[in-house]
Amino acid sequence: MTEQGYPPRQPGHSGRQGRPRAPHAPRKTGWQVLDAFDDRADSESDLPPWAVPGGIEPLRPARRPPRAPGRGQPGVPGGVDEPNRHPAAESGGPVQRRRLAGRSRASAARRRRSKRRLETWGGAALVIVVLVAGGLWLTRSHAPKSQFVTRLQRGEFRSVPDACKVIGATQLQTLLKGTPKIVQPFTAAVHSQCTYTVDSKPTFRLLSLTVQAYPPSLTAPGSGSATANARYSFALERTGLAKPSKGTAQPPARITAIRRLGSEAFSATQTFHTGLLTDRVTVWVRYRNVLIDVSLMGEASGGFGPVTTVQLGAGALSTARSAFAAVKTEPTVG
Fold it and tell me: Containing H/E element for 257?
């Protein structure tokens, strides 16, 4: 800011009241202190700048520095004067730049090239994404299959033969030593049972035949297939005959394995002492998911007999073979 002097004194002003003091000589440096009684007060050379018309030069708007030419843009010739390049800056108005024709064409060409590159790479990226997604979908690991089987497998049986039609009449009379009375307590597609009885002194025979096709079961150990279920039930029957539960009237059975009959087979011989002497031979056969249970019982006391476990065992085994042959004629799962 420009330093300014004191304004001129007003006429008739006596100054500060009190003790007068001697006037000082006017300063010769800087602006002069004006005195109304000084004969040199009218000198224009000693007036402050604000007292002279046009003494303070008006401020001009700041000039914007010239912009350096960008890449690919033509430079400004060196012979052009700076004031002529920016006439609007001196007048204080907005600066307007004239777009060069070459620059507009170059910008349009760059935009077209950028658009083509964007379309090309965008399409390629989209194709790659689709191919990768398709490959992942085709090669993805499917949900792990359950280790349990819930359907009948190839070679397993859907049905069993009628137990009362397995043995013919002639065979029954030879086996039971008389004309039997037939009782069929239960029969179905997958489970059939039949009982033959001869009760005429001195002969008492009781033949029981059961044929059952087991379905898949998740409670059976292993895969839970129908064959695994039949195998598990076969093992339970064998254990129950060899070691009967406490509190039952059954004595422990003598277990004998039978070869070349079905998938596996055994016979169990028991002798009951309950007032009457009763012998019983049981034959169990498993073939895939089918179990065959044959039990032949005979009385050897109280006016009945004689009968031996050998005779009973032979009759039970022949019945089991006949039932096994009938089972093999049943259709299986393809």
Answer: strand 254-258
* 208 domain residue, yes or no: yes
Question: For the residues 12-33, what does the mean pLDDT come to?
Answer: 50
DSSP symbols for 20-77: --PPPPPP-SSSPPP-TT-TTTT-GGGS-GGGSTT-SPPPPPPPPPPPPP-TTSPPPP
Domains of the chain: total: 1
Instruction: Tell me which residue has tokens 């043995």.
Output: 167
β-pairing, 203-213 with 191-200?
antiparallel
pLDDT 10s digits, 75-113: 444 444 444 444 444 455 555 555 555 567 788 888 888
CA nearest to 86, candidates 59, 58, 63: 63
Q: What is the residue range of 256's domain? A: 163-328
Spatial contact of 311 and 269, defined as CB atoms under 8 Å apart? no
Position of tokens 């065959």? Answer: 292
